[in-house]
């Protein structure tokens, strides 16, 4: 336990623990100190000097964000001297780069520098503007970097390093030539380390790092905000969505979410809204727009002429729990009902184990074992937790039976094929010898015979080392809501083509929801294209156009994640809310409502 200490701030007595900064103590006691470079859950830098305070008996002013509170000290946070120094600092920041507020999209509400300029009375600049000739990097897919707006607060650098764990960004050069650089001075689009998570953009106070899709769409402070759940993977991160005039302006992570604490990966941050997709907004019959009545009449006629034993429904694992229950409710009107999952995932999503407080396990782990899982590709926020655990806490990392990824560079052991030889497992045991809080993160491949053998070997390692119950188990499926689908009674299907070909099919209903590729992934499975071509009636229920929707006799437009009301079940078994962010576009309908209408 830290030693309790006492101090006074502006004459108010405050208690805290030794090691806390003056800013932390002031915040805990509702005492305001202005900040600019400081960010919660980031290491303090103390470079902007906006949070300077006076300590009785010291001639110097000190940054509150980086100065530990001292027992018995008396701190002043506001005085004529501090106001004068803060104003001068802000004027210097405005004059150093090309901060042309009238043409900046961050103007009047979204700029952290401007937020401090107004209360400190910065209505003109006493110093000559430098007007440096600075470049703009627009090579990134989703975001750009404008050095003219940068104030070198390093919030982006610290976020990239401490939250995403890749340290793509850093500061280069000296003096007035200082600038944020990507890797070894390359463009954002050329970076080999950037994960495109956009955390740096969310951290930037001035818009030096900015989202291309958001620019000039509207000021964030005037937007409507809705908290909902990310639909891109089974982690279920919290989203805070900004909308204006019935369109999405920006997406940030919800800082109140226990799972992601405000952080997002590329999928949640951008692919939810900034990736271009061809939306289907009205029913199609043989490729031509029709009314809902016409489309439903055709589908019902096709059902009436197809025997129940030759009628099949296959659903995406991305649907809501409500849609899953609607599908299960009509299962008796069809021969088979299933949801497609990746190979070996059926056992993983059927009654999964409850891992407890996953966020705490990941935050405290001193060893990570990855088995048959692809967090960099499929679960970006989990990958970030592993990176930061290894880089910042010195946690061990053992990667078994996983495809290559950037995590290999941080691993103590990384093998594609696991050996069962004693020498190899002696090496694993040596790496994990001192682990007190290990976490085993496993995916579908862990359900194979080889995966089960590896699990047995790991159990032997931890049993021999006397580490109690062994590692905390975190199972990660690939399907967004495959756990919820299976829990609702929908059969998991690992190989779709054999499942369809087991019996003759006259009527096939594909409930794909807002699959980003419009279900095109199904056509990649061997023999699927030929099988679908031989089915007289294929009904596709989807939000986005694809080769699959183009080949269907009937296409029924479904709502997307931002238009839905319902719940998703994440990988820990928690039910998370989906809230409507924007109105339904065109004639789209909720997946559950469409299923109920088709089988009414």
Describe the structure.
There is one protein chain. The protein has 600 residues and is of the alpha/beta class. The chain has four domains: 5-78, Ubiquitin-like (UB roll) (Roll), CATH 3.10.20.740; 101-112 and 121-271, Alpha-Beta Plaits, CATH 3.30.70; 284-341 and 481-598, Rossmann fold, CATH 3.40.50; 348-475, Dimethylsulfoxide Reductase, domain 2, CATH 3.40.228.10. Helices cover 27% and strands 20% of the residues. It contains 19 helices and 28 strands. The strands form seven sheets. The chain has an eight-stranded mixed β-sheet. Helix 4 crosses helix 12 (380-393) and helix 8 packs parallel to helix 19. It is globular. The model has no long low-confidence stretch (mean pLDDT 94).
Brief rundown of the structure:
The protein has 600 residues and is α/β, with parallel strands linked by helices. The protein contains 19 helices and 28 strands.
Keywords:
eight-stranded mixed sheet; Alpha-Beta Plaits; Rossmann fold; alpha/beta; Ubiquitin-like (UB roll)
């Amino acid at each position: 336990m830290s030693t309790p200490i006492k101090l006074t701030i502006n004459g108010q007595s405050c208690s805290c623990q030794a090691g806390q900064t003056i800013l932390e103590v002031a915040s805990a006691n509702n005492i305001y100190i202005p900040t600019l470079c400081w960010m919660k859950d980031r290491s303090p830098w103390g470079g902007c000097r906006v949070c300077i305070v006076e300590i009785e008996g010291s001639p110097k002013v000190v940054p509150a964000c980086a100065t530990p509170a001292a027992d018995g000290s008396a701190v002043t946070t506001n005085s004529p001297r501090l106001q004068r120094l803060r104003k001068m600092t802000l004027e210097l920041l405005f004059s150093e780069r090309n901060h042309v507020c009238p043409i900046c999209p961050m103007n009047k509400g979204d700029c952290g520098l401007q937020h401090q300029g107004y209360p400190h009375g910065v209505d003109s600049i006493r110093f000559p503007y430098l007007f440096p000739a600075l470049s703009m990097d627009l090579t990134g897919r989703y975001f750009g970097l404008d050095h003219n707006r940068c104030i070198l607060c390093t919030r982006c650098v610290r976020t990239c390093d401490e939250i995403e764990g890749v340290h793509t960004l850093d500061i280069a050069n000296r003096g007035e030539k200082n600038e944020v650089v990507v890797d070894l001075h390359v463009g954002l689009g050329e970076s080999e380390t950037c994960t495109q998570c956009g955390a740096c953009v969310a951290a930037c106070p001035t818009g030096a790092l900015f989202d291309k899709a958001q620019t000039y769409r509207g000021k964030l402070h005037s937007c409507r905000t809705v908290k909902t759940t990310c639909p891109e993977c089974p982690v279920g991160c919290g989203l805070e969505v900004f909308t204006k005039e019935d369109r999405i302006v920006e997406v940030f992570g919800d800082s109140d979410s226990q799972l992601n604490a405000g952080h997002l990966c590329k999928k949640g941050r951008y692919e939810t809204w900034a990736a271009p997709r061809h939306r289907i907004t009205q029913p199609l019959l043989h490729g031509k727009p029709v009314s809902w009545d016409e489309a439903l009449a055709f589908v019902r006629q096709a059902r009436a002429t197809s025997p129940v034993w030759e009628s099949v429904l296959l659903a995406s694992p991305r649907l809501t729990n409500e849609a899953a229950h609607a599908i299960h409710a009509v299962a008796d009107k069809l021969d088979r009902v299933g949801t497609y999952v990746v190979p070996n995932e059926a056992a993983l999503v059927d009654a999964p184990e409850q891992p407890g407080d996953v966020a705490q396990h990941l935050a405290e782990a001193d060893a990570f074992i990855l088995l048959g899982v692809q967090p960099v590709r499929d679960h970006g926020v989990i990958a970030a937790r592993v990176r930061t655990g290894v880089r910042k806490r010195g946690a061990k990392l053992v990667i078994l039976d996983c495809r290559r990824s950037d995590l290999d560079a941080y691993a103590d052991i990384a093998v594609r094929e696991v050996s069962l030889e004693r020498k190899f497992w002696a090496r694993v045991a040596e790496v994990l010898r001192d682990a007190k809080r290990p976490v085993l993160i496993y995916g579908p491949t862990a359900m194979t015979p080889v995966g089960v053998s590896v699990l047995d070997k790991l159990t032997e390692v931890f049993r021999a080392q006397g580490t109690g119950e062994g590692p905390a188990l975190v199972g990660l499926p690939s399907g967004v809501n495959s756990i919820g689908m299976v829990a609702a009674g929908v059969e998991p299907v690992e190989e779709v083509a054999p499942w369809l070909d087991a019996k003759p099919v006259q009527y096939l209903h594909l409930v794909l929801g807002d699959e980003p590729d419009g279900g095109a992934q199904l056509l990649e499975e061997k023999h699927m294209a030929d099988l679908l071509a031989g089915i007289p009636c294929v009904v596709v229920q989807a939000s986005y156009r694809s080769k699959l929707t183009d080949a269907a006799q009937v296409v029924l437009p479904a709502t997307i994640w931002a238009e839905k009301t319902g719940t998703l079940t994440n990988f820990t078994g928690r039910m998370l809310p989906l809230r409507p962010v924007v109105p339904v576009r065109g004639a789209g309908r909720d997946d559950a409502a469409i299923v109920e209408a088709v089988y009414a």
